[in-house]
């Protein structure tokens, strides 16, 4: 419920955020984030937060690099996608560590509404990054790339997103999430979808129906008139056992 209320709040805000800084760059090296992800995230997207906690200095250094070198507004879209997807995911891990131990990100008061992510000279919230920057880029697959530290979320990829590999990474993320039986049931006539498709339906239906969008990535096509139900979201922390 907290998430839905916050989502409604951000959906009511008009216009994207434009970040201006004298230190803006057109490309960013995300290799430090890949090192941390490969060390502390398994192939199923489960996160070793206790291990991450031991590398907090490295995580802080990466976030500091992103803060001090914002991606320029005129940078290539894939560079901007990489910057903000990685920033969102790293910022979420930092938020969890700041409040660890906990059972769910929803145990934190206004987790997506706190101005905790520095970019240039200002701080922004995770909600700002998702709704006022990433969603304004008209790339619905970002919903399969950003991770909210919960089991029903798309898996946290254990490598950084980069401009050079963005298309293949986003396609992989979309296929992995849509065909994941733990998150969606895709029968020919029985369809149970993640609530992500309910919350962000407008993003997925800009060029057609929701079913047609899902069929773009589904291993087995869904009947176009199939009745859609939505699964309850599991906000349990996506922590490795």
Topology, pairings included?
Blueprint: H1 2-11, H2 31-40, H3 49-54, H4 56-68, H5 77-99, E1 117-119, E2 122-124, H6 126-134, H7 166-178, E3 185-186, E4 190-193, H8 196-199, H9 201-204, H10 210-215, E5 227-230
Parallel strand pairs: 4-5
Antiparallel strand pairs: 1-2, 3-4
Helix pairs in contact: 1-6, 4-5, 5-6
Q: What would your notes on this structure say?
A:
It is a single chain. By secondary structure, this protein is mainly alpha-helical. It has one domain (2-181). It is built from ten helices and five strands, in the order H-H-H-H-H-E-E-H-H-E-E-H-H-H-E. The protein has helices spanning 2-11, 31-40, 49-54, 56-68, 77-99, 126-134, 166-178, 196-199, 201-204, 210-215; strands spanning 117-119, 122-124, 185-186, 190-193, 227-230. Strands 3-4-5 form a three-stranded mixed sheet. A two-stranded antiparallel ribbon has the order 1-2. Strand 1 and strand 2 form a beta hairpin. It is globular and about 50 Å long. The relative contact order is 0.15. The model is unreliable at 5-12 (pLDDT under 50).
How many distinct domains?
Answer: 1
Number of strands: 5
Tell me what portion of residues adopts beta-strand conformation: 5-15%
Kindly report the average pLDDT value.
93
Rounded to the nearest angstrom, the radius of gyration is 17 Å
Low-confidence stretches: 5-12
- H-E string: HHHHHEEHHEEHHHE
Major sheet: size, sense and barrel closure?
Answer: 3 strands, mixed
Major sheet: arrangement of strands: 3-4-5
Overall, the morphology is: globular
Helix % is: 40-55%
């Amino acid at each position: 419920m907290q998430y839905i209320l916050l989502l409604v709040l951000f959906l009511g805000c008009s216009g994207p955020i434009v970040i201006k800084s004298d230190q803006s760059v057109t490309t960013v090296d995300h290799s430090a984030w890949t090192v941390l992800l490969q060390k502390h995230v398994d192939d199923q997207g489960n996160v070793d937060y206790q291990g991450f906690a031991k590398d907090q200095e490295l995580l802080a250094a990466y976030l500091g690099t992103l803060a001090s070198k914002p991606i320029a507004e005129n940078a290539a879209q894939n560079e901007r996608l990489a910057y903000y997807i990685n920033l969102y995911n790293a910022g979420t891990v930092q938020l969890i560590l700041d409040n660890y131990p906990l059972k769910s990100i929803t145990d934190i008061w206004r987790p997506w509404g706190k101005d905790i992510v520095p970019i240039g000279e200002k701080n922004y919230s995770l909600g700002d990054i998702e709704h006022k920057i990433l969603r304004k880029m008209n790339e619905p697959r970002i919903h399969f790339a950003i991770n909210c530290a919960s089991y029903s979320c798309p898996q946290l990829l254990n490598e950084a997103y980069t401009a050079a590999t963005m298309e293949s990474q986003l396609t992989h993320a979309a296929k992995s999430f849509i065909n994941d039986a733990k998150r969606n049931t895709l029968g020919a006539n029985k369809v149970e979808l993640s609530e992500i498709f309910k919350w962000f339906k407008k993003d997925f239906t800009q060029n057609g129906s929701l079913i047609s969008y899902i069929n773009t990535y589904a291993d087995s096509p869904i009947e176009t008139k199939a009745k859609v139900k939505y699964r309850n979201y599991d906000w349990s922390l996506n922590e490795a056992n």
